[in-house]
């Protein structure tokens, strides 16, 4: 060792932190596992026990409520009820109603142990076809489909008939309410055809609907056309207008006959309906038929053959499906 060198001695004290841990944690872990085993054993016993056994266990562990509910009037107070502050508020054996206290499962002891009894199960009704029931055949499916289609058609026909009844009643009521039209009941004829409701304005011997040999509408006919137009203007159906004449030859001027006259009268009726508020796009066609379709074929010269037809057409399938009218 060189001379004069200082010798330093370092002393280290061991506080024992680095010693190996003991086995105390094993005891705690063993206690925990024992408790878990006991818990699951209890659950298994509750699930496997009979109802009578569970009732006995519930009654054994359920505390008695007789003292809590004031089961008798004997004792120090002899039926008196005392407030918390000590003031007597009832005497002479009077009993105040006991407060609602928990029964701790006394009324239904099994619900304490079995949650299935506390939560009501929803009522489920399951229907099954018989094992020997065969699926419907193609004929049965087709028959069912045809029956449903027939029911829909009948329902549509009933609704259509009710609508036409309402139109006829309204037109008749409005004509009856107008004193100037009281004698025109025979001049308006309503017929239900396969194509729709046909409203015909007829000539009579003494009550013509147009001026003789002309397309000029007389005032009474104008009022009648206005009533019809105002009644059907809010309907969805389209209107077809046709003009008709009798078979008498028309020779007022050269090149002008029954075809021209019937067409001009039908077109004059179209203008009158539009003036009454019927939208122009609701008119599907205007036709002049001359004397080709007489109302009385056995009497082609009859004045009733001179007429105007207003056909309120039934909606086509495309229109019923919501498509635009033609």
Automatic annotation (TrEMBL):
- Can you tell which superkingdom this protein's organism belongs to? Bacteria
Q: Which PANTHER family match?
A: LIPOPROTEIN YIAD-RELATED (PTHR30329:SF21), STATOR ELEMENT OF FLAGELLAR MOTOR COMPLEX (PTHR30329)
Chief subcellular location? membrane
Task: Give the family from UniProt.
Answer: Belongs to the MotB family.
- Sorted alphabetically, which Pfam families does this protein's record hold? MotB_plug, OmpA
CDD domains, per database record: OmpA_C-like
Q: Which UniProt keywords apply?
A: Cell membrane, Membrane, Transmembrane, Transmembrane helix
Cross-referenced InterPro entries: Bact_OuterMem_StrucFunc, MotB-like_N_dom, OmpA-like, OmpA-like_sf
What membrane topology does the UniProt entry give? Single-pass membrane protein
| Compartments, as annotated in UniProt | Cell membrane
What name has this protein been given in UniProt?
Answer: Chemotaxis protein MotB
Record's PROSITE patterns? OMPA_2
Q: Which residues form the OmpA-like domain?
A: 197-316
Keyword Zinc included in the entry's annotation: no
What is the scientific name of the source organism? Answer: Limimaricola variabilis
């Amino acid at each position: 060792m060189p001379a004069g060198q200082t010798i330093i001695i370092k002393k280290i004290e061991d506080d024992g932190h680095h010693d190996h841990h003991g086995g105390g944690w094993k005891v705690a872990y063993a206690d925990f596992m024992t408790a878990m085993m006991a818990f699951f054993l209890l659950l298994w016993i509750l699930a496997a026990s009979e109802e009578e056994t569970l009732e006995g266990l519930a009654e054994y562990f359920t505390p008695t409520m007789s003292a809590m509910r004031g089961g008798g009037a004997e004792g120090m107070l002899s039926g008196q009820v005392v407030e918390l502050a000590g003031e007597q508020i009832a005497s002479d054996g009077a009993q105040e109603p006991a407060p609602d206290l928990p029964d701790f499962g006394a009324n239904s002891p099994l619900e304490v142990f079995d949650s299935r009894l506390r939560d009501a199960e929803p009522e489920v009704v399951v229907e099954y076809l018989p094992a020997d029931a065969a699926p419907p055949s193609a004929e049965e499916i087709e028959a069912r489909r045809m029956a449903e289609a027939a029911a829909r058609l009948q329902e549509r026909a009933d609704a259509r008939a009710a609508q036409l009844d309402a139109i006829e009643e309204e037109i008749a009521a409005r004509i009856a309410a107008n004193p100037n039209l009281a004698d025109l009941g025979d001049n308006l004829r309503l017929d239900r055809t396969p194509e729709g409701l046909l409203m015909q304005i007829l000539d009579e011997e003494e009550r013509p609907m147009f001026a003789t040999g002309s397309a000029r509408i007389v005032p009474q006919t104008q009022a009648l056309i206005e009533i019809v137009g105002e009644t059907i203007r809010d309907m969805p159906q389209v209107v077809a207008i046709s003009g008709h004449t009798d078979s008498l030859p028309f020779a007022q001027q050269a090149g002008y006959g029954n075809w021209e006259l019937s067409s001009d009268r039908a077109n004059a009726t179209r203008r009158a309906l539009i003036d009454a508020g019927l939208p122009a796009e609701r008119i599907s066609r205007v036709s002049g038929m001359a004397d080709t379709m007489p109302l009385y074929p056995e009497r082609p010269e009859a004045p009733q053959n001179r007429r105007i037809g207003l056909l309120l057409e039934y909606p086509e399938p495309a229109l019923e499906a919501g498509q635009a009218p033609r």
